[in-house]
Amino acid sequence: MFNWVFKTVVGRWVTGILVALLLGGAALKWHNFKEGLIHKGQQVCVQEINKETVQQLQDALAAEKVARAELSAQLTAIATENQASRDRRVELEKQLSAAQRAMAEQRKNDETYKAWADAPLPAGVGERLRDQAAAGHSGAVRDDRN
Fold first, then answer.
1. Distance between the two ends of the chain, CA-based, in angstroms?
2. Is the pLDDT of residue 3 over 70?
3. Predicted TM-score (pTM) of this structure
4. Domain count within the chain
5. Is 113 within a domain?
6. 64: helix, coil or strand?
7. CB 11 within 8 A of CB 4
8. What b/e string do you get for 81-107 counting C-beta neighbours within 10 Å, with b at 16 or more?
9. What are the Cα distances from residue 86, in Å, to 13, 81, 89, 145?
10. Does residue 66 belong to any structural domain of this protein?
């Protein structure tokens, strides 16, 4: 029944075309299979790269959080130290102000005593001071006569 296929020219052409179509279809299927594998491999590679990138980004974010916490702690310590320095400065300024007031008072007293030193002693006071010094009296000078 199919003897004409192999014996006639038309049959040979039909058989050749059918074989060519079969081989072409098989080649196309093989090509599509290879492309599918390549595409799937590329997707797997991209997924792996994405996983690595996400992991690196998460690591960088964690490191950033740690660095931020450290800087925050340092800033808090510096702020505390600055406040303590301000408190010490205020206290030292108070002490300086008190010392300056004491020095001004001392200068005023020194000027008063200098004015007194330039003035002559009242009558009899010099003799009494000399007598007491000669007697070895080291106490305060009192005028018992007044």
1. 171
2. no
3. 0.41
4. 1
5. no
6. helix
7. yes
8. eeeeeeeeeeeeeeeeeeeeeeeeeee
9. 106, 9, 5, 58
10. yes
Cα–Cα distance measured from residue 27 to residue 14, given in angstroms and rounded to the nearest whole number: 20
Contacts of residue 141, Cβ cutoff 8 Å, sequence gap at least 6: 128, 129, 132
Burial class (CB in 10 A: 0-12, 13-18, 19+), 132: middle
Indicate the DSSP class of residue 17: H
**119 found inside a domain:** no
Number of H helices, E strands in the chain: 3, 0
pLDDT confidence tier of residue 81, bands split at 50, 70 and 90 = very high
CA 56 to chain centre: 23
- Does 125 map to a domain? no
21: containing domain? 3-104
Residues 6+ apart with CB under 8 A from 65: none
Cβ atoms of 128 and 141 within 8 Å: the answer is yes
C-beta of residue 141 within 8 angstroms of C-beta of residue 132: yes
